[in-house]
Specification:
With 428 residues, this protein is an alpha/beta fold. Helix content is 38%, strand content 22%. Helix 12 crosses helix 13 and helix 12 packs across helix 15.
Length: 428
Amino acid sequence: LKGTILSFTNNPFLVDINNSVKLIESGGVLIDGSFIKDIGEFSKLKSNYPHAKVYDYGKNLITSGFVDCHMHYPQTAIIASYGKRLLDWLNEYTFPEEKKFIDIDYARKVASLTLDLCIKNGTTTLASFCTTSINSVDAFFDEAKKRNMSVIAGKTCMDRNAPEYLIDSVNSAYDDSKRLIKKWHNSNRSYYAITPRFAPTSTPEQLDSLGSLWSEYPDCLMQTHLSEQKEEIEWVSKLFPESDSYLDVYDKFNLVRKNSIFGHCIHLKDNEIDMLKERQSSIAHCPTSNTFIGSGIFKLKEISSKKINIGLATDTGGGTSFSMLKTISEAYKISQLNNFSIHPAQLFWLATVGSSISLGLESKIGNIEKGYYADLIVINLASTLEIEQRQRRAKNFWESFFPTLIMGDDRAIMETWVNGNEINYKQY
């Protein structure tokens, strides 16, 4: 693939931008099968591999596909549902929709649509919650397998404080999750995440059983929610009065570890931030849902300064867009309200490498490096009239890139490559 190549050599939150980014104009990425075989100046690659088929993207940007580290594919149909706070929103919109996913055909239809929307927007890897139905998990992994996509997902577990038609039990949550791990984990680029929805919808007994399950399969991930809204935190304190904090609830059941990823984390206490750092857990920053549901402003500057890993996520359908570019734009704006102007390199890091680290896949995806999967996107930095007229005035690469990060959408995604194959979202 010929174009302008953007990759990362270091974390731009920790290292000077000039020493964390590698930019190759007139560059090339050599793909061999599913993997990246070489990167460099196009002329040298062409000389070394004269028989390779050339895809010439001119001066357009070639970089890693986006990695969405927290979303809910069963909520695709209810995206942009009006109003309400989190707990009301779950009861009015989410739970009735999730009831439908016991039907495998319905689940496949929505999973297919969700993955197509992600590909259309340049997202090549996503981590999704499913529902309490096994069918919802099988459908999602099946559809991802058709596309050779790397995905992370798990059966959502909840045995209280939810409608009877969705509730599982301590035993079914454990048994179903275990069967699904054996079926899907680390197979066909699929990875399993043990998935308690959040502390209020699981009894202590269920959380304990899921902690035990994770000890049996420690290379799985664990995904859940943490400190999204103040009402939710108050509810947790009433349900678990013996715990010092919301995060302490999960810790008591051995659910705070290196491969745990917590969505939102807006209203963290200092001791919770310290625990996340100590345990090397990750945070999924979900800016569009945090504003849409009125949850609050994520303290990106403070938390990133603690060297806690942060990934970027759409959180659809609480989030309002499948586009990681729009999510990047909202992350920038929210951070501005916290007096932190994120550099474009840092924004893009969050949506690629940061998210891949959150999912434990940083040695396989999220960057352009030899031996990584060829999950790539080609970005047009002049995709609309308003972006093009601003980009023409740019004095350097970052000025050229920034308008797309702030105003771009799926129109900026010229091409998506998954597993070394040019992929058209419409073909499925």
